[in-house]
Amino acid sequence: MPLVIAGFIGLLIGWVLGPDVDDIETTLGDRLTQIEAKVNNGLVSVAGIQNGMVGADQRMTEIAAAVQAQASAAPNEAAAALSAKLDQADAASKAATDALGQTVAALGQKIDALAAMPAPAAPAAPSGGEFAALASGLGNSGAILLAGQSAIFGSKTLTVASVGEGKATIGTAGGASNEVASGASVDLGDGCSVALTGVAGPAALLAPTGCGAPSAPAAEAPAAAAPAAPAAAPAAAAPAAPAAEPAAVPAPAPAAAETPAAAPAPAASNGALVIGQTAVFGEKKAFLSRISAADQTAFFFIPGQGQVSGKAGGSVDLGDGCSLSVASVEATSVTVEPAGCGETPSADTASAAAPAAPAEPAAAAPAAAAPEAPAPAAEAPAPEAPAAAPAASTAAGTPIAIGQTATYGDKRIFLSRLTPEAAFIVVVGQGPQEVKPGASADLGGGCTAKLESIGAGTASFTPAGC
Q1: Domain containing residue 322
Q2: Could you read off the pLDDT of 334-344 as tens digits, one per residue?
Q3: In this structure, is residue 297 part of a structural domain?
Q4: What is the DSSP string of 91-121?
Q5: What span, in angstroms and rounded, lies between the C-alpha atoms of 461 and 95?
Q6: Domain total for the chain?
Q7: What is this structure's pTM?
């Protein structure tokens, strides 16, 4: 019972104190109305957004259509342009190929024509074959000259003006130049003639005959000295008539002895030297090693001094008060004038040395006994002629240029070609040889030439046993 009463009392209190249901409904309705209004406003906004999205979609569709249109049009234009360029390149390639084919065909025709032509003549290579054969036949008295070079044969100076195919233009000093074919000869007078044995490339090969004039008259000087021995013999032994006859025989000999003394005069009168010659002034010598016509300068090798240069109009000191004036410098020769040297120059040292040689035969003549004194005197000079050759030898270490000839005793070498590693020479009477720096060339007869150095177009040799 008490529980029932308590429950009833609680219900009454709750009824009195609880809210009014109508008020709750009214409040809830107002609240729902507000929420509905907000929802409606949101729906309006969503509708606007949807409308914007539709517009954007339409814009995107338009842009995509425009891009697709441009994308489809650009490749077509680029492809067309590329195709046009490819067509142009193909046409140019075809034209170039056709032109190249024509050029190759023309070149083939030229090659066939060249193949059908005869081989070039062997003389184009002066270091081998025919040149060696021609050089080996020159002997020790021959000469190998290039255009513009000179050589002395007897008392005459012979100059090669030009060299052609199978011929050369040759002239003497003071004379006209004539064209000479291979095998023909040039008469220098006094029984001296020079034959053009052949032409090899730019070189002319010359062989003299009977050109011992400068040496032969000098060799007769002992004959003039020999009569002095018979003259002395009668004073000592008092022979009879035979002594008188020899005294009469030598009478013309002194006149002959005067001839050799005059033989070198043509060279000494104008003092002209060519490359490779040595001028003798008393006891002084000057070897002409090189000429620079552009600088008007001559280069001399002077024993004891080495190489000395002298310009045209200047002078070169030979020592002991002897000087050498350079009057003029030409392409292949130099005119010199000595002063204070005691003797006139001799361009040919062999001629200068020959007169001194008879002194020995003259001393030997008395030992041959009086009965046959003239005969030994005639025989004694003969060996002296080659003995004069060493006086004209090229000085050791003197540079020689391509195309020049060096003389060592009675041996001669012609410098035909140079490389940085070797010198190619032709030994006159033997043939070509290749010599490396420090090595020696065998010139025959125990004579050798050692290649000391190779310069700018020159080579220096040192002889031994020559």
Answers
A1: 271-341
A2: 888 888 886 54
A3: yes
A4: HHHHHHHHHHHHHHHHHHHHHHHHHHSPPPP
A5: 63
A6: 4
A7: 0.30
